[in-house]
Structure formats: structure tokens, C-alpha cells
Write a structure and sequence with these properties.
123 residues; alpha+beta; Umud Fragment, subunit A; seven-stranded antiparallel beta sheet
Length: 123
């Protein structure tokens, strides 16, 4: 079952201000309907990801490229199967295989409310 990503609240905003969260801008339609192109997401680099969570990760073959996908399955040896919610528009584990835990940079904790997104920096 897919977990919904809540809108940010005062706690998430405080965590960002204190340096415990990062802001990432979604690029593309691979995570529709959960996340759309241009959405801003707060990432918690210290959270332990679980099946159903949306994560921010390094692409396994293009280390300079970062991706936002949902964990579909956790395999032995800390390997993760990542899938986009919009399978027709997603490049994910179906093409690049499972990724290592070390390549997951954080878990998406909240979406920044649209009225605030005009003020937020781009990553």
C-alpha cells in the first residue's frame, strides 16, 4: 500500500531550519499522482526507510543524478527495489536493478505546501 506524503508542518519546518532536513525539487512525472513536477519535498537523511516510503537516492549508474522513487521491496544484503508511482513515465529498478542502502540519501518526510513553494530554494 502506498503511503501518502503529508504536507509540511511546524515541526518539519523547524527541522529544516535547524539543518535536519533538506529540500529537493521533483523533476518529471515519474511519481504522479503522489508528487508532481516542481513539488518541493523535505528529505530526512537520518530516517530509516521502509517499504512504501518515498526516498531520495543516487542513480546506480549515474552518481551525479539523483532520483525520487518509492521503495517497493527490500532484499537481502540491504538492497532496495525502487519504483516510480507512474510506471509509464519512470526509469527505476525495472531498468537499473536494486540499489544499495548506501545510495539512499534520505526519506521524503513531507511536501512543502504550494503557497510556500514560491519562497523555497531550488536544489
Amino acid at each position: 500500500m502506498e503511503k501518502e506524503l503529508p504536507d509540511d508542518d511546524w515541526f518539519e519546518e523547524l527541522a529544516y531550519v535547524c539543518g535536519f532536513r533538506e529540500i529537493v525539487r521533483v523533476e518529471g512525472d515519474s511519481m504522479l499522482p503522489a508528487l508532481k513536477d516542481g513539488d518541493l519535498v523535505l528529505i530526512n537523511p537520518d530516517a530509516e526507510p521502509a517499504v512504501g516510503d518515498i526516498v531520495f537516492a543516487r542513480h546506480p549508474f549515474k552518481q551525479s543524478v539523483k532520483i525520487i522513487k518509492r521503495i517497493a521491496e527490500i532484499l537481502p544484503d540491504d538492497r532496495y527495489i525502487l519504483l516510480g508511482d507512474n510506471l509509464d513515465e519512470s526509469t527505476d529498478s525495472r531498468s537499473f536493478g536494486a540499489i544499495a542502502r548506501k545510495d539512499i540519501l534520505g526519506k521524503a518526510e513531507a511536501r512543502i505546501k504550494p503557497e510556500k513553494s514560491d519562497e523555497a530554494p531550488s536544489s
